[in-house]
Amino acid sequence: MLSFVALLFSLLLLHQILSSKRNKCTPPSPPSLPIIGHLHLLKPLLHQAFKDLSQKYGPLIFLKIGSARFVVVSNPSLAKEFLKVNEVAYSARKVNMAIDMVTYHDATFAFAQCNTYWKFMKKLSNSELLGNRTLLRFLPVRTREIHEFIRSLAEKSMANESVNLTESLMKLSNNIISQMMLSIKSSSDETEDGQGEEARVLVREVTKIFGEFNISDFIGFLKVLDLQGFKNRAMQIHKRYDVLLEKIISDRETLRNKKMMNIVNKSGDGDKDDKVKDFLDILLDVSEDKDCEDFFTAATDTTAISVQWAIAELFNNPRVSKKAQEEVDRVTGNQRLLREEDSPNLPYIHAIIKETLRIHPPIPLLMRKGLTDCVVGGYKIPKGSMACINIWAMGRDPTLWESPIEFRPERFLEGEGKTLDTKGNNFELLPFGTGRRGCPGMPLAMRELPAIIGALVQCFNWKMFDPKGKLLDHGTPIDMDEQPGLTVPRAHDLICIPVARLNPIPLLQL
Ligand code: HEM
Ligand SMILES: *[C@@H]1O[C@H](CO)[C@@H](O)[C@H](O)[C@H]1NC(C)=O
Ligand SMILES: *[C@@H]1O[C@H](CO)[C@@H](O)[C@H](O)[C@H]1NC(C)=O
Ligand SMILES: *[C@@H]1O[C@H](CO)[C@@H](O)[C@H](O)[C@H]1NC(C)=O
Ligand SMILES: *[C@@H]1O[C@H](CO)[C@@H](O)[C@H](O)[C@H]1NC(C)=O
Ligand SMILES: CC(=O)N[C@H]1CO[C@H](CO)[C@@H](O)[C@@H]1O
């Protein structure tokens, strides 16, 4: 037994010596094990594991997991070197086997290289579809959905019934996005053939599987064994996604053709919902393009996740909540529901959003793959490395933020904090990433968030339930645990009873 331990130990040592010789100028690296490398140091909440490692080994560390190499970055100036100075090299996004599968890079799916879904997402992120003009056109859709959402909460409030806020926020943001993208409604009560519901479930599943951290992704020679049926699941999801999208698209094409035949006169203002072209119409208008590159889907959950964290933080910080209510009351006079156009007059709400995205970035790690060798922070970073920019850790770094865990929106309204925005110019605050691979959905999110959070602040206080289903006593904070994944939602759903501050029903336009 003892000799076995000694043997293992000397093997380890040898491995250590050999690997430190080979990687002479790569960044610092914790001790690793043969074959699995640093796998044993990781935990499902990857961003937290990375933060712990960074605290021990510095802001730039090199990790090997099987055959994959990672560079973990957790300070703004190094993040800038990767994302700005070396932007061209670090603009690819091949993450893991699951993503490869769902995005059709697996050899067995060669036929799907340029399929419908892929093209759709590609266009979505490349075109003007998320630009100002299109967003403005869809304002009525967003307004109607928010009013509907507030009404459902008001009804619960009158009945003194609890709501699953996690669920209803997810529905809200999926309704908005899917109506914009596909002109379908995804709540179960008003679906066409249940397409909406199916889309909603799929989006959730895809983001979940992307984030699931699984051994078989990382150990090259085990890949073929498909240890956890992971590959199967990825494959199934990808099939369902494609079938669904093909169907939606062919339905739309038929509809468009019908419309084209019917249009004899262009008299204009008929039904206004018909007039608003949806994303898919626009996509079909855009002519085909054939180039294939990587893309990334973890997008649609993020808005709902941000609102949940904001509501939870407001619940735990009554002082902030009160100040927010004062601002919203002042702007609306409570004669109407808060609306998107009020946004410029809501500096405190905007500070709350920044503070929420600082402490709870829905996407905690920016993942980019290096296409060429680079030098960063004086170290050689070999090509093929996956840079993981830990924006979660930077948001909680006491050298960057005073009392980082404290939820204090005022930090964005005074002194230097005033100049910080979320547009990717400040590398200590990158909730939407930065540069050409930054989030194209930011303008949409930054319209939705103030409107949703503001309307909730205007209309309701909350009674919250704890994870065990017990009503929290007055003054008891709600937990802030995180759930693992590529996006980081709350570990426990927000279940609460809305307590109306005013009767919102007369203010709604439905
Ligand atoms: C609070 C809300 C949101 C947050 C915090 C967020 C955050 C992010 C982040 C961090 C990235 C990676 C950026 C990088 O690597 O530099 C990203 C990418 C992306 N986001 Fe968002 N996002 C949000 C909402 C949205 C919405 C509403 C949409 C679409 C309707 C969207 C669509 C996308 C797409 C398509 C990409 C991939 C871009 C590419 O790979 O080129 N996001 N998002
Ligand atoms: C979109 O509108 C916002 C404010 O409404 C403005 O700051 C931004 O520059 C606009 N973007 C483009 C591309 O016009
Ligand atoms: C509302 O429900 C809560 C918990 O279910 C209960 O404690 C409370 O007494 C109820 N309030 C009213 C006014 O019915
Ligand atoms: C709340 O909704 C989520 C998402 O639909 C669901 O997974 C969860 O079970 C619900 N929680 C409760 C307590 O009903
Ligand atoms: C267009 O068609 C509608 C009904 O088909 C008709 O009521 C309307 O007068 C027409 N407009 C013009 C300008 O011809
Ligand atoms: C190491 C690891 O995180 N393995 C996970 C792989 O995925 C299954 C579920 O699909 C998890 O239960 C494992 O924990």
TrEMBL record:
Cofactor(s) required, per the database record: heme
Name of this protein: Cytochrome P450
Stored InterPro entries: Cyt_P450 (IPR001128), Cyt_P450_CS (IPR017972), Cyt_P450_E_grp-I (IPR002401), Cyt_P450_sf (IPR036396)
Family named by the database record: Belongs to the cytochrome P450 family.
PANTHER family, alphabetized: CYTOCHROME P450, CYTOCHROME P450 93A3-LIKE
Regions that span the bilayer: none
Signal peptide: 1-19
Subcellular location: Membrane
Tree of life domain: Eukaryota
Source organism of the structure: Stylosanthes scabra
UniProtKB keywords: Heme, Iron, Membrane, Metal-binding, Monooxygenase, Oxidoreductase, Signal
Pfam family, one: p450
